[in-house]
Amino acid sequence: MHVKTYTGASTSAVLANIKADLGPDAVILETREAVKNGKAEIVITAAVDREGPVPGNGRAFSGPAFPPGNGSGHTGMGWKSWQEEWSSIKTHLLSMMKPELQFSRLSPRQRVAMEFLEQEGVDATSLLAVFEALLPDPQASILAPLEALVPVKGWSAKNWPQRVHLVAGPYGSGKTTALVRLALLLRKEMPGRKIWVVNADSLRGGGRLLLKNYSQLCGLEYREVSNAVEFAAVLASARHNGVNTILVDLPGLPRRKSMPEMLDHFGMTDPDNALHLVVTPHYGETAMRSLAARYVPDAVRQNAGLIWTKLDEADKFGTLVNVGAASRLPVSALSCGPELNDTLVPAENAALWRLLFKQEMPCKAHPDDAGF
């Protein structure tokens, strides 16, 4: 596997460069923001699984993207041979499943929908599940099996009644702005609700100032914590002040740390806490599954969900089906566009399928409305 890092002024420009350089099979491993010579830039690490020299002039190295191990980030012995063996097994499994997907056995309307899902990048496992659900009834809609595959639990006080909501995700996924948007949406739903924003990612200067400034602009109460003692003090103060909802911006998970370790450090291990994993469609399937496993282990899955961001920067949305089906985490919100207002909506089945089949953005404010 060849891995390269690309930089540019915008996500769409960098993605276009990656596609031209590495081809359509490239997967996104990491997306983050950086500052160079006083200007913001997007940094994306991508990989392509092929042999031979790496095209282009990007920085590259050969090696696995997500080595197996004990969850601490240490590479297991014999990883390269394990990866090659698994790749071979996966290829054979998918080739065995392919003959079962005889779209000609479906009605014309169902066949067209299945072919579209395949073009969108929906994987063979999900396609087979939908295919088997459709086969007995030529009149059956494709939406019913899709809804069974991809759980949805839209962001609202009713659906997510927990007091503490932990917002997590890799750097560059848009988790900080997603947190502010969650707060604004909740305040719009319930104007009298007391909401506090807590920054547990306060050691990063840029991220700290961003969340603090956003909170002040939006009239949200802002706090910072760096350990369990400080968070306990925030909880006590929140109870005293009658705060209804606490939204916590967690740091990106270090490679050698696990989510339970991070939550223990901050004293956020209460099983009643909710956890929202913020992700973008830009990540490849391997990276996405690894993120879901690392950020949402079994210990916190009960009250966990997915927030999809930067949807306006993607050109395919099959990943939403694949990740939802594989992780079984409900989608809580959909976000697109750079602004804070009207750029995040509670997830709904109808909005999800309009996005998948029509590429219709779920938000009111997105670049398509910009007039250029």
Automatic annotation (TrEMBL):
<feature type="domain" description="SRP54-type proteins GTP-binding">
    <location>
        <begin position="162"/>
        <end position="358"/>
    </location>
</feature>
<dbReference type="InterPro" id="IPR000897">
    <property type="entry name" value="SRP54_GTPase_dom"/>
</dbReference>
<keyword id="KW-0969">Cilium</keyword>
<keyword id="KW-0342">GTP-binding</keyword>
<dbReference type="Pfam" id="PF00448">
    <property type="entry name" value="SRP54"/>
</dbReference>
<dbReference type="GO" id="GO:0003924">
    <property type="term" value="F:GTPase activity"/>
</dbReference>
<keyword id="KW-0966">Cell projection</keyword>
<dbReference type="GO" id="GO:0005525">
    <property type="term" value="F:GTP binding"/>
</dbReference>
<keyword id="KW-0282">Flagellum</keyword>
<keyword id="KW-0472">Membrane</keyword>
<dbReference type="GO" id="GO:0005886">
    <property type="term" value="C:plasma membrane"/>
</dbReference>
<protein>
    <submittedName>
        <fullName>Flagellar GTP-binding protein</fullName>
    </submittedName>
</protein>
<keyword id="KW-0547">Nucleotide-binding</keyword>
<comment type="similarity">
    <text>Belongs to the GTP-binding SRP family.</text>
</comment>
<dbReference type="GO" id="GO:0006614">
    <property type="term" value="P:SRP-dependent cotranslational protein targeting to membrane"/>
</dbReference>
<dbReference type="InterPro" id="IPR027417">
    <property type="entry name" value="P-loop_NTPase"/>
</dbReference>
<dbReference type="GO" id="GO:0005047">
    <property type="term" value="F:signal recognition particle binding"/>
</dbReference>
